[in-house]
Structure prediction request, 187 residues.
Amino acid sequence: MTLRVLRAADRTAVPWKNGGGVTREIAASPEGAPLDDFDWRVSLADVSADGPFSSFPGVDRTLTVVEGAGMDLMVGGEHHIVDEQYWPHDFPGDLETDGRLLGGPVVNLNVMYRRERTTAEVAVVRGTLRLLAPQSGTVLAVALEDGAVLDGHDIELDCYDAVVADGASPGVLRTQGWALLVTLSVR
Prediction:
Protein backbone atom coordinates (compact mmCIF):
# COMPACT_ATOMS: atom_id res chain seq x y z
CA MET A 1 0.00 0.00 0.00
CA THR A 2 1.12 3.51 -0.82
CA LEU A 3 -0.13 6.18 1.60
CA ARG A 4 0.43 9.88 1.04
CA VAL A 5 -0.56 12.85 3.16
CA LEU A 6 -1.26 15.93 1.06
CA ARG A 7 -1.25 19.17 3.04
CA ALA A 8 -3.38 22.10 1.93
CA ALA A 9 -0.55 24.52 2.77
CA ASP A 10 1.71 22.83 0.18
CA ARG A 11 -0.59 23.44 -2.82
CA THR A 12 0.13 26.05 -5.45
CA ALA A 13 -2.70 28.28 -6.72
CA VAL A 14 -2.88 28.25 -10.52
CA PRO A 15 -4.91 31.10 -12.09
CA TRP A 16 -7.52 30.20 -14.69
CA LYS A 17 -7.09 31.38 -18.25
CA ASN A 18 -10.37 33.35 -18.03
CA GLY A 19 -9.35 35.12 -14.80
CA GLY A 20 -12.45 33.91 -12.91
CA GLY A 21 -10.61 31.98 -10.22
CA VAL A 22 -7.72 29.75 -9.21
CA THR A 23 -7.28 26.00 -8.87
CA ARG A 24 -5.20 24.06 -6.36
CA GLU A 25 -4.58 20.45 -7.41
CA ILE A 26 -4.90 17.96 -4.54
CA ALA A 27 -3.94 14.81 -6.46
CA ALA A 28 -3.97 13.34 -9.95
CA SER A 29 -3.18 10.08 -11.69
CA PRO A 30 -0.78 9.62 -13.17
CA GLU A 31 0.99 12.10 -10.94
CA GLY A 32 2.02 15.18 -12.90
CA ALA A 33 -0.23 14.32 -15.87
CA PRO A 34 -1.21 17.27 -18.05
CA LEU A 35 -4.86 18.39 -18.16
CA ASP A 36 -5.45 16.60 -21.45
CA ASP A 37 -4.17 13.19 -20.29
CA PHE A 38 -5.02 12.46 -16.62
CA ASP A 39 -6.96 9.36 -15.59
CA TRP A 40 -8.42 11.29 -12.64
CA ARG A 41 -7.84 14.61 -10.94
CA VAL A 42 -9.08 16.10 -7.64
CA SER A 43 -8.74 19.82 -6.99
CA LEU A 44 -10.08 22.81 -5.08
CA ALA A 45 -11.27 25.81 -7.09
CA ASP A 46 -11.74 29.32 -5.73
CA VAL A 47 -14.37 30.84 -8.03
CA SER A 48 -14.61 34.63 -7.86
CA ALA A 49 -16.52 35.50 -11.05
CA ASP A 50 -19.20 34.18 -13.38
CA GLY A 51 -17.97 32.48 -16.54
CA PRO A 52 -17.50 29.43 -18.71
CA PHE A 53 -15.99 26.18 -17.49
CA SER A 54 -13.14 24.61 -19.43
CA SER A 55 -14.20 21.75 -21.69
CA PHE A 56 -12.80 18.29 -20.90
CA PRO A 57 -13.74 15.83 -23.67
CA GLY A 58 -14.33 12.28 -22.38
CA VAL A 59 -14.28 13.43 -18.74
CA ASP A 60 -17.05 13.22 -16.14
CA ARG A 61 -17.04 15.71 -13.28
CA THR A 62 -18.34 15.90 -9.73
CA LEU A 63 -18.52 19.39 -8.21
CA THR A 64 -19.11 19.87 -4.49
CA VAL A 65 -19.55 23.38 -3.06
CA VAL A 66 -17.55 23.52 0.17
CA GLU A 67 -17.72 27.29 0.85
CA GLY A 68 -20.14 29.97 -0.30
CA ALA A 69 -23.74 30.22 -1.49
CA GLY A 70 -23.29 28.07 -4.59
CA MET A 71 -23.66 28.31 -8.32
CA ASP A 72 -26.21 28.16 -11.10
CA LEU A 73 -24.61 25.88 -13.69
CA MET A 74 -25.86 25.86 -17.26
CA VAL A 75 -24.75 22.42 -18.49
CA GLY A 76 -25.52 21.61 -22.11
CA GLY A 77 -28.39 24.11 -22.06
CA GLU A 78 -29.93 22.87 -18.78
CA HIS A 79 -29.91 24.74 -15.44
CA HIS A 80 -28.41 22.93 -12.46
CA ILE A 81 -28.70 24.87 -9.20
CA VAL A 82 -25.82 23.78 -6.97
CA ASP A 83 -26.60 25.68 -3.77
CA GLU A 84 -26.22 23.14 -1.00
CA GLN A 85 -22.82 22.76 0.63
CA TYR A 86 -21.34 19.26 0.75
CA TRP A 87 -23.77 17.92 -1.87
CA PRO A 88 -21.85 16.31 -4.79
CA HIS A 89 -23.23 17.20 -8.23
CA ASP A 90 -22.28 15.12 -11.30
CA PHE A 91 -22.14 16.41 -14.88
CA PRO A 92 -20.31 15.61 -18.15
CA GLY A 93 -17.15 17.68 -18.58
CA ASP A 94 -17.47 17.71 -22.35
CA LEU A 95 -20.78 19.60 -22.43
CA GLU A 96 -20.66 23.38 -22.68
CA THR A 97 -20.89 24.62 -19.09
CA ASP A 98 -21.26 28.13 -17.74
CA GLY A 99 -21.35 29.05 -14.04
CA ARG A 100 -23.10 31.96 -12.33
CA LEU A 101 -22.38 32.70 -8.67
CA LEU A 102 -25.51 32.80 -6.48
CA GLY A 103 -24.15 35.07 -3.76
CA GLY A 104 -20.48 35.84 -4.03
CA PRO A 105 -17.33 33.74 -4.33
CA VAL A 106 -17.37 29.98 -3.72
CA VAL A 107 -14.87 27.21 -3.16
CA ASN A 108 -15.64 24.00 -5.05
CA LEU A 109 -14.04 20.60 -4.66
CA ASN A 110 -13.79 19.05 -8.14
CA VAL A 111 -13.37 15.41 -9.05
CA MET A 112 -12.69 14.76 -12.73
CA TYR A 113 -12.18 11.33 -14.26
CA ARG A 114 -11.73 10.07 -17.77
CA ARG A 115 -14.81 7.85 -18.27
CA GLU A 116 -13.02 5.36 -20.57
CA ARG A 117 -10.32 4.65 -17.97
CA THR A 118 -11.75 5.28 -14.50
CA THR A 119 -14.91 5.30 -12.42
CA ALA A 120 -15.33 7.51 -9.37
CA GLU A 121 -17.68 7.48 -6.42
CA VAL A 122 -17.88 10.68 -4.37
CA ALA A 123 -19.50 10.98 -0.94
CA VAL A 124 -19.43 13.51 1.86
CA VAL A 125 -19.15 11.72 5.19
CA ARG A 126 -18.93 12.44 8.90
CA GLY A 127 -17.96 10.24 11.82
CA THR A 128 -15.90 7.07 11.72
CA LEU A 129 -15.32 4.94 8.64
CA ARG A 130 -12.78 2.50 7.27
CA LEU A 131 -11.16 3.81 4.12
CA LEU A 132 -11.11 1.07 1.49
CA ALA A 133 -9.27 1.34 -1.81
CA PRO A 134 -10.61 -0.96 -4.52
CA GLN A 135 -8.27 -3.57 -5.97
CA SER A 136 -6.05 -1.71 -8.46
CA GLY A 137 -7.72 1.50 -7.34
CA THR A 138 -7.35 4.49 -5.06
CA VAL A 139 -9.16 6.01 -2.11
CA LEU A 140 -8.77 9.69 -1.30
CA ALA A 141 -10.21 11.57 1.67
CA VAL A 142 -10.21 15.37 2.01
CA ALA A 143 -11.01 16.94 5.40
CA LEU A 144 -13.62 19.66 4.85
CA GLU A 145 -13.22 20.89 8.43
CA ASP A 146 -10.43 20.69 11.02
CA GLY A 147 -10.22 17.68 13.29
CA ALA A 148 -9.89 14.50 11.21
CA VAL A 149 -7.52 11.71 12.28
CA LEU A 150 -6.31 8.61 10.42
CA ASP A 151 -6.03 5.97 13.15
CA GLY A 152 -2.99 3.74 13.21
CA HIS A 153 -0.82 6.32 11.48
CA ASP A 154 -1.10 9.21 13.95
CA ILE A 155 -2.02 11.49 11.05
CA GLU A 156 -4.09 14.57 11.84
CA LEU A 157 -5.82 16.44 9.04
CA ASP A 158 -6.79 20.10 9.08
CA CYS A 159 -9.25 21.69 6.68
CA TYR A 160 -8.49 20.67 3.05
CA ASP A 161 -5.64 18.33 4.01
CA ALA A 162 -5.98 14.96 2.29
CA VAL A 163 -4.81 11.37 2.45
CA VAL A 164 -4.60 9.10 -0.58
CA ALA A 165 -3.94 5.35 -0.66
CA ASP A 166 -3.57 2.89 -3.51
CA GLY A 167 -4.58 -0.77 -3.49
CA ALA A 168 -5.31 -1.31 0.22
CA SER A 169 -7.00 0.13 3.27
CA PRO A 170 -4.99 2.86 4.99
CA GLY A 171 -7.12 2.47 8.12
CA VAL A 172 -9.96 4.20 9.89
CA LEU A 173 -10.74 7.87 9.41
CA ARG A 174 -12.34 9.63 12.37
CA THR A 175 -13.80 13.06 11.67
CA GLN A 176 -15.16 15.69 14.01
CA GLY A 177 -16.56 17.50 10.97
CA TRP A 178 -17.20 16.61 7.34
CA ALA A 179 -14.85 14.92 4.87
CA LEU A 180 -15.12 14.21 1.16
CA LEU A 181 -14.39 10.61 0.19
CA VAL A 182 -13.45 9.64 -3.37
CA THR A 183 -13.16 6.00 -4.43
CA LEU A 184 -11.49 5.58 -7.83
CA SER A 185 -11.45 2.32 -9.80
CA VAL A 186 -9.53 1.52 -12.95
CA ARG A 187 -11.72 0.16 -15.76
About this structure: The two ends are 20 Å apart (CA to CA). The mean pLDDT is 94. The longest strand covers residues 171-186.
